[in-house]
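protein under study:
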Amino acid sequence: MHCQRWIIVLAAMVATGIPALAAQEPVTAPGSGSTTSESSSASKSKRTHADELLLRGTVFNERGLAMREVKLRIRRANEKKSHWETHTNSRGEFAIRVPPGSDYEMQAASKGFETQTRAISAKDSSGDEKIIFHLKPAEGGK
């Protein structure tokens, strides 16, 4: 049923002189001289993932069990505001990419547990940094 409709639509397009979509010529803007356009994101940044530092690791509780949905915030050591944020998956693992050449601080926080902060030096790093957090229960609560 649906095939017949498409055949009728295509036949009507051909009969009325409307070109099929596949046969259309690329449209160029007046004065551009180019038939292809570059995506705006490609022209903004030439940095690739190979240039970035991969911060990955696992978050465990005091008994050594993986913790899910732990919030991880990353900021440059000389700044107050966090620029990157992620959460652990169901196995307590996380991975996030940051630009190299700076020192960073990573903070792991979860409800009912003490927040931990780690300093990360990305100035001389090789591109991959493994980080392990062992969160302890917060005082007076469980």
The mean pLDDT is 78. The CA atoms of residues 1 and 14 lie 20 Å apart. The chain is about 15% helix and 30% strand. The radius of gyration is 26 Å.
